[in-house]
Each structure stands twice: as structure tokens, then as C-alpha cells.
Amino acid sequence: MIPDDVKERLKKKYNLEEPTPFNSEQRLPPPRNRTEYPATTEFHIDPYKGAGELLLGMTPDEVQAALNFQPRAGRRFHYGTDTCDKMDDYRCCFVYFKNDTNKCHFVEFYSERISVMFHGKNLMNIPYEEAETFVRQYDPDIQTNGTGFISLALGFGVYAEFAFENTSLPVETVCVFEKGYFAKNNK
């Protein structure tokens, strides 16, 4: 502890103001991750299994270990129902978990910083028309819905909000899902 007379001399000598009291709320928490994004930047789609290190059926701890990254937690509500999923944001994708089992059943990739590969082609940020034409080679029965398409045969889909107004707009997100996901969530 510094004596009061020494404090006063130091304040005068160095033209210091009164110290502000310590307030723990003013401190920013230390960063949880060493980098701003996970180190993994390329995810290869394996139909109904996952993409890259992210496998459907993983627990939140397993996903966090696979990406070596601390997520931000959240929830996603299903429109027209009273159910919601637990969701973790990994700054390159949202990972959704079933409430009853706490297992991953849906992953939505959204970052321009990553590649989501299918048969050697990156589906992220390419023109919607190019993505649809490419995927139709593997599943001619893809379902289009005005903002993208899903392939029930391949277990993934793409989203491009205004794709049907302008098919040259880029794919914004790519999602992978478990078998039966759209059947049970679109009832």
C-alpha cells in the first residue's frame, strides 16, 4: 500500500487524475479462442454422415473438439411449432443439436472463408445456377423452393435468397442434415 503523501506527490509530479475504482464489469473477458475462426477451412460433404470433421450425431463437446474452437451458444425456433433446437455458432457454421439426445442433426455453413466441397467442387459462393446444375448430375430429383434447393438423396442443400430472381447470385449457405430431417421438420 502506498502512503497518501507519496500518492499526492506522484499525482502532482506526473499530473495524474484520481484513479477510478476497480469495477469487474468494465473488464472485457479474455478471448476464448486463439484465432477468430476455426483452423479447419475445408469441409467435404459425405451424404448423411456430415462434412469434414463435423459428423452428424456428434455431441456439442465432440464438435468443439473436432473444430478445436469455442462456439457461441444460441437457439433456433421452428416456425409454426413450439419446438427449438440448441445451436452453436462456430463463426463458419451453425451446428444444431436435437433437444432430446443433444446430438448434431443439422449443420449450416455460412462463411466466405471456408470451402464446402462435394465431388471436388466448392459449393460456397458460386453462382446458384452453377451449383444447381452441378448437383443435378448426382441427384436429378433435387427439390427447389424459391430460395435454394435440397437433395434428399444426398443429404444436403443450398440457400441463395434471391436465386430465382437472379440465378447468377452466389450460394450463401450450404447445409447438411440427417436422414428424415426435412420430413419431420416440415410437417
- Beta-strand proportion: 25-35%
Estimate the mean pLDDT confidence. 84
Helix content: 10-25%
The span between the termini is: 69 Å
CA gyration radius, whole angstroms = 24 Å
Structural class call reads alpha+beta
- 3D shape: elongated
Number of helices: 4
- Order of SSEs, N→C? HEEEHEEEEEEHEEEEH
State the CATH architecture.
Sandwich
Question: What is the count of distinct domains?
Answer: 1
Counted beta strands: 13
Physical arrangement of strands within the biggest beta sheet: 4-5-6-7-13-12-11-10
Q: What is the level 1 CATH name?
A: Mainly Beta
Please tag this protein with its features.
187 residues, elongated, 8-stranded antiparallel sheet, 4 helices, alpha+beta, protein yfey like fold, 5-stranded mixed sheet
Write the layout of secondary structure elements.
Elements: H1 4-14, E1 42-46, E2 50-51, E3 54-55, H2 60-67, E4 72-77, E5 84-89, E6 93-97, E7 104-109, E8 115-118, E9 121-122, H3 128-136, E10 143-144, E11 148-151, E12 156-159, E13 173-177, H4 181-185
Parallel strand pairs: 1-8
Antiparallel strand pairs: 1-2, 2-3, 4-5, 5-6, 6-7, 7-13, 8-9, 10-11, 11-12, 12-13
Task: Explain what the structure shows.
- By secondary structure, the protein is an alpha+beta fold.
- It has a single domain, classed as protein yfey like fold.
- Helix content is 18%, strand content 28%.
- The protein is elongated, with a radius of gyration of 24 Å.
